[in-house]
Amino acid sequence: MNGSHILNEHDFVGLENEYKSFTDRNNAPLTFLRPSTIQLLCTLLNPIKIIPNENGLLRDWRGLAELSGITSEKIIYFESKENPTSEFLKHWMKEEGKTRSINDLRAFLAVIDRYDACDDCSPMFENDIKFYWSLDETTRNKSSISYNDKTASVDHDVLTIGDTQSETPARYDAFILYAEEDSDFAMQIVEKMEDEYNLKICVKDRDLLGGSMFEHEIIGRIIEERCNRLLAIFSPHFLKSQANQFLVSYAQALAL
């Protein structure tokens, strides 16, 4: 755990105020995070980030824990658990859930430079807030979403954005594989296939959840378990990538 950093509470109050400048209906207590949202946060924040950001904050759940003021002893305890993000969020909601808000969580994610997590979770945050405001005032003041450890545990089948929007794993007609230098051309192909032929294409930079330590393994799983075909865009840049060549060979072995 990084013991010190150059941030203090005044450094992120501005970010919190930026989110709180919305009307009340654009925010909700932290206790109204639903289990599916917590599950996605666990998927994104459990992978350990070794290199801290420029302010010395770790870019995983430990950075959030440090910002929340949790003691180092508690953090060490959470580290010993299979799902430390879940344990931390459960503790944070119990201690400060009625005074902290969903937009405070957004602000904290920004402070630790996890804008990818902000983006990936944003639709679910918005749904949680809408659910809160759909309740009558008496219910809002008395209730919170009950935290269910089993429901909030990491689901290793949650690999893509589509998985967070359905109770079953998302399936695709094809996974498109290309070199970064060919991304513009690749997206033209994706747009044509989706718009004109109504095909569902899985695109790494668009559809995969951020935060994975083993991206090539995730892609391999998606190709094997979720896709009917692999579409590879061969180019000089593509052929320089050993990872791309491996995935093409892997798909051929699967007879895709």
Notable characteristics:
TIR_dom, Rossmann fold, single chain, Death_dom, cytoplasm, 14 helices, Myelin_different_resp_MyD88, 256 residues, 3-stranded parallel β-sheet
Average pLDDT metric: 80
Summarize the biggest pleated sheet.
Answer: 3 strands, parallel
Output the number of helix runs. 14
What count of domains describes the coordinates? Answer: 2
Question: Which consecutive residue ranges, at least 5 long each, have pLDDT under 50?
Answer: 1-23, 146-155
User: Termini, distance in Å?
Assistant: 45 Å
Question: What is the 3D shape?
Answer: globular
> How are helices and strands ordered from N to C?
HHHHHHHHHEHEHHEHH
Protein name: TIR domain-containing protein
GO biological process, one term: positive regulation of canonical NF-kappaB signal transduction
InterPro entries: Death_dom, Myelin_different_resp_MyD88, TIR_dom
Organism: Allacma fusca
Could you explain how this protein is built, in words?
The protein has a three-stranded parallel β-sheet, with helices on both faces. The model is unreliable at 1-23 and 146-155 (pLDDT under 50). The protein has helices spanning 9-20, 35-45, 61-68, 72-79, 84-96, 102-111, 115-134, 137-142, 149-152, 183-196, 204-207, 215-226, 236-239, 242-253; strands at 172-177, 201-203, 227-232. The chain folds into two domains: 9-150, no CATH class; 164-253, Toll/interleukin-1 receptor homology (TIR) domain (Rossmann fold), CATH 3.40.50. The longest helix has 20 residues, at 115-134. It is globular, with a radius of gyration of 20 Å. α2 (35-45) packs antiparallel against α7 (115-134), α6 (102-111) runs antiparallel to α7 and α12 (215-226) packs parallel to α14 (242-253). With 256 residues, it is mainly alpha-helical. 54% of the residues lie in helices and 6% in strands.
